[in-house]
Specification:
single chain, alpha/beta, 5-stranded mixed beta sheet, two-stranded parallel sheet, binds fe (ii) ion
Amino acid sequence: MSADGFAGGPPPGARHDWTIDQDWDDYTQAEHEVWLTLYQRQIELLPGRACTPFLKGLEALDLHRAGIPEFARINEELKRLTGWTVVAVPGLVPDEVFFDHLANRRFPAGRFIRKPEQLDYLEEPDVFHDVFGHVPMLTDPVFSDYMQAYGEGGRRAQGLGRLTNLARLYWYTVEFGLMQTAEGLRIYGAGIVSSHAESRFALDDPSPNRIAFDMERVMRTPYRIDDFQQVYFVIRSLEALLEASLQDFAPIYARLEGARDIPIAAIEPTDQVLTRGTQAYANSRAAQ
Ligand SMILES: [Fe+2]
């Protein structure tokens, strides 16, 4: 994940590309325990919920061996499978740094882990969100190509002033994406698979809308960072997502220039609706 508003360069101790050493030996036993607790909770929940590429990736990288994984160890297998590596960063990095890493098949991951009393609450993505949530999908050749294409697209969108629109694509796919499969809806978004509560909400709750993925529709839809999503977009397959991302975005950006944003819970006449949500959850939260 990336963020705007960085005044200077990398923080003290970080390299020019904002990477740091993971210093795996410095993690405490208590920190490893947090990983194991989170890992155990998710692994009990995700079979039948997460998509097959995610579960296969989790298996291939053996992410539960002894707490927080050592990036150097998982990188051997990840590199062999798709040519990707995980690099440690101190926290959020500027957009252009983030895009450059992705375009070069490097995934920047937070080094720190949340506190035991914060299992369900995160202000910034930590190593569990970044590695457990994101990295298994990077073992999939198609999804990993999509991530690289996103990094390349990010640099172009920045030049064209359309970063807000492109960030929505990232949010509703890489972070909160759902996928249609022969067995039913499955999760591939990192923000969902790394969250105990949203792993259930995204699939089971009657509140959110679930709408077939459409690139331009997604780019016009704002998102919320403070609570469960009010709308999820459902892709047909990873191949379809990659194909959509390889089209020329210039005509889409040109149309977005004059287009209004679509309110977060709205359903458009052109939407292919899988679930018309009640929005009961969001409404009850708003009333609090
Ligand atoms: Fe993320």
